[in-house]
Backbone:
């Protein structure tokens, strides 16, 4: 708020301030401040906005100024922007591009947004295998002057645009001028297919540590490059999706502050209701034990503690496994090793909590005499249940993501609700069964 | 498992298979297969391993072979590897490097791992402002042949190594050969300071979309560059840490499969015990209402449902805010807008669940006559409590991360336990208070 007031004093925002405040400014304020920036700052700001923000801005500025901003964008960024825009306006904006770019952009828009094809840039540096190194460098200089975005690698193509090899720019630069490109290039380059999912592309790029990967079709024709800066966005996007799904909601498509209230409620209410209906089984389970609770009301006192312990251990285990799967550290075929590990972990963690719990019941009893004579038996019931509940929670939490993945569902989105319901209901069954055995003849 | 058996048949793993299976192979199997790879594949595999994995491999292969592998690594990667290694062996490995690299590596090891200085590479392309463009390109070619890792940008330094400006390689390449570097370069380049936290560096790099950022000291002396591929690792690392902390545990330092059982239990047991002790307040709260439960056992039946609904809505809200803060979408100063938004969201979501809950109690009653005569009042109690609990859960969930950040704590690690305890205990208070008002004179 302080910066907002400062703004009114001298009535001008710097580019950095404008970027900071973008989300909370009105459309008019955005346009006014944007048009007031020095051209270089404005370009920096514009290209740094998310595609949706760029689209909104473009539709808000005077029609006559749209052309230069559309032409500022690289073809893949233009395609991303256009994908955010509905209806007739989309065609109008496409018409602002020059003819070759328009063709590139239309080709890119045909790909699904999450595919390698939807991420790639069609502008890459190309050389021929029979060029000399010095000739190749001159040819690259010419490409750099024309329409190349950035130089990462030079791709060696045959006359039918099939990818033969790759030279890093450094290799080309360091090679003797008279050598042939085909003798300098790396053959059998790592490639991705147009229809490969962006998450898989990100894993490949991280594994190999390249700045860019060539995108090819089924016949090895080179279609474009996916660059590391696109992948950084993908990594962020996928992590956010996983985190939000794990938090028990549908992933938002836009940043929190840019998501409309209605859209946010829809994304949140759905899962919350599903979770709620699932949790209703706890009421069914509790109803089965009404008789026991009526006899020993003290049993009800520990219900929230027991089920939350199961839930917490389940959520630890499923977070671990979901994240490890997302990073490719854990595969489906590792399931048996995970079972062994998590079974041991569950028992150990359950014992730790049981000891803490037993101490708690005993200390309370010594000080307040809350539970009356059979407090030792109540402590035993709580302790036994904790070991069972935490073990079941840990096992369910670690196995459900793997099972969901096995049947083709997204482990991140479906695990939390299933784990919660399963663990809460089975926690109640374990607790009251333990109570029946241990307290029979005393409290029950 | 299938691939393990296939391996025994033909007794050789390809580089890709080896990378896939790395985590589950024994040390002997790793060494044997690694040494059996063609040199180029082996190098690709080695540089793609995590620093810890590289260190373990290096210590497992014959002493005579260590030198070439140490020398394969760029100085920043060598420093990362050495930071994973304890005691005397560290010095032995440093001695394997050539003298200039050894100096670079020692300088890098002095930085904290999470700082810009700990991430940066000291090998960057430098030019002088008074060179001609063609001269600068020839000078860069010389640097490329020597010890440069990759060419991203050419940094323009004065005679005291102070950073004056930056040329993208493409700009230099496209400029007329006779122009001076100082006329082509961008002045006032975006820089990061050596001691800047890696998360802040990642945010800056993503915002500006550069492939590399120059690292400078307090007097603008250039120290190195942080490149985008280091940032991809940072983004992954930070997301994993946030996810694991959010799942209610300490972040693991290594991948799941490479973490020892003992280390994993320690990371998990601590928070689980803290959560457990926090949740004990639910038992205290429940004990206060033993009298009411004894009179109307049916009240106990809905306890798990009520508190889990509060917990779920709290966890949605805190996931959203924590992730939005991590991505820089939401700042502390936005707190009032968030309160308004989440208050409205909480009430709406609570009403949705209340309707679902009321329908459930009514349908059950119509079919099974579970709750007896005052079922309408019980439905009203549950519905009222749900609106209260979900609203409180949503508000606590969204505000606690902001408050923790405000007092300098990590919102990701501390929110989950605080939210859970606060929401569960306040949920019980809301539920039993509602019951006392609504059921007075009938069940209570």
Residues:
């Amino acid at each position: 708020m302080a910066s907002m007031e400062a703004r009114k004093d001298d009535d001008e925002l710097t580019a950095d301030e404008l970027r900071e405040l973008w989300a909370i400014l009105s459309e008019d304020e955005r346009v006014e401040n944007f048009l007031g920036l020095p051209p270089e700052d404005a370009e920096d700001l514009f290209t740094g906005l998310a595609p949706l923000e760029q689209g909104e801005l473009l539709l808000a500025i005077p029609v006559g100024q749209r052309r230069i901003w559309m032409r500022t964008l690289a073809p893949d960024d233009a395609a991303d922007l256009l994908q955010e825009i509905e209806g007739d306006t989309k065609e109008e904006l496409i018409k602002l591009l020059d003819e070759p770019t328009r063709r590139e952009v239309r080709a890119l828009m045909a790909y699904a947004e999450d595919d390698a094809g939807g991420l790639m840039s069609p502008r890459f540096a190309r050389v021929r295998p029979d060029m000399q190194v010095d000739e190749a460098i001159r040819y690259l200089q010419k490409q750099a002057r024309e329409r190349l975005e950035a130089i990462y690698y030079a791709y060696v193509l045959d006359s039918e645009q099939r990818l033969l090899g790759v030279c890093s720019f450094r290799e080309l630069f360091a090679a003797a001028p008279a050598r042939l490109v085909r003798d300098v290039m790396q053959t059998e380059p790592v490639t991705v297919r147009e229809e490969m999912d962006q998450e898989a592309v990100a894993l490949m790029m991280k594994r190999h540590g390249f700045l860019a990967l060539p995108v090819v079709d089924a016949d090895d024709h080179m279609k474009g490059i996916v660059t590391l800066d696109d992948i950084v966005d993908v990594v962020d996007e996928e992590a956010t999706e996983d985190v939000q799904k794990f938090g028990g909601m549908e992933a938002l498509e836009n940043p929190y502050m840019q998501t409309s209230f209605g859209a946010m409620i829809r994304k949140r209410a759905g899962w919350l209701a599903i979770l709620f209906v699932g949790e209703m089984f706890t009421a069914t389970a509790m109803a089965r034990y009404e008789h026991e609770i009526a006899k020993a009301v003290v049993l009800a006192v520990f219900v929230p503690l027991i089920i939350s312990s199961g839930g917490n251990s389940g959520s630890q285990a499923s977070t671990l496994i979901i994240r490890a799967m997302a990073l490719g550290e854990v595969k489906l075929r590792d399931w048996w090793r995970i079972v062994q590990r998590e079974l041991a972990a569950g028992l150990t963690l359950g014992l730790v909590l049981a000891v803490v719990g037993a101490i708690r019941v005993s200390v309370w009893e010594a000080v307040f005499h809350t539970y009356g004579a059979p407090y030792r038996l109540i402590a035993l019931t709580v302790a036994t249940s904790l070991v069972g509940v935490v073990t079941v929670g840990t096992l369910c939490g670690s196995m459900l993501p793997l099972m969901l993945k096995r049947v083709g569902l997204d482990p991140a989105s479906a695990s939390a609700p299933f784990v919660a319901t399963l663990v809460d209901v089975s926690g109640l069954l374990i607790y009251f069964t333990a109570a029946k055995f241990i307290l029979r003849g005393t409290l029950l």
